[in-house]
Amino acid sequence: MRSLSELMESGVLELYVLGAASSEEIQLVDEMAATHPEVRNELLQISATLEQYAQTSAVKPRASVKALLMATIDYLERMKKGELPESPPELTANSRISDFEKWLNRADAVLPAHADDIYAKLIGYTPSATTAIVWLKTQSDNEVHDDEYERFLIVEGTCCITAGDETHALAAGDFFAVPLHTTHQLIVTSAIPCKAILQRLSVA
Q1: Which residues, at least 6 apart from 133, have a Cβ–Cβ distance to it below 8 Å?
Q2: Which of 11, 61, 120, 184 supports an S-S bond with 71, CB 3.0-4.6 Å?
Q3: What is the 3-state secondary structure (H, E, C) of 93-153?
């Protein structure tokens, strides 16, 4: 590839912007961009076009996905700083809020003022179980789980959870297990955020 026109038409500039160019192609583009403003402008145009495509084609993740992802990052950072991993008890119909007092009374187990509609604090993680304290201000997205059981123990506030064709009113102390393969949504009915212990268990 010897001429500017050959470079512009080769597709190498697109590969360069995508990070898929070879080392030789990167060197070539860098050299050509240093001496040809047309190459620099084309690179900017390609970047802008790809960014616009990404923005218009992006799928917004569910709020719960972001909340649990951020909670996982926080949990891993706490482990790096010396916090020892723990295994909170499995949530069942016999679970009580007092079973989780040691985690609910943590100094950092509070809802930050800047929190999104859903906020979570991970308190236990194993390959088969994830346990978190969650706060929900208004409502969750519609979800369905095919490979994990989702269970709730309400700690504060009230909510209604619709699972399939049934709606259940829940208050502090109430337990609910979401059936597999069932679309469900939680809607807060109290003036304060609904606070709960959330546990997701892998299907054996």
Answers
A1: 100, 103, 104, 109, 120, 121, 123, 155, 195, 196, 197, 198
A2: 120
A3: CCCCHHHHHHHHCCCCCCCCCCCCCEEEEEEEEECCEEEEEEEECCECCCECCCCEEEEEE
Where in the chain are the domains? 4-57, 63-202
Q: pLDDT for 73-120, tens place per residue?
A: 999 999 999 999 888 999 999 999 999 999 999 999 999 998 999 999
CATH of domain 63-202: 2.60.120.10
Measured CA angle at 67 (ends 103, 18), to 5 deg: 140
87 close to 100: Cβ distance less than 8 angstroms: no
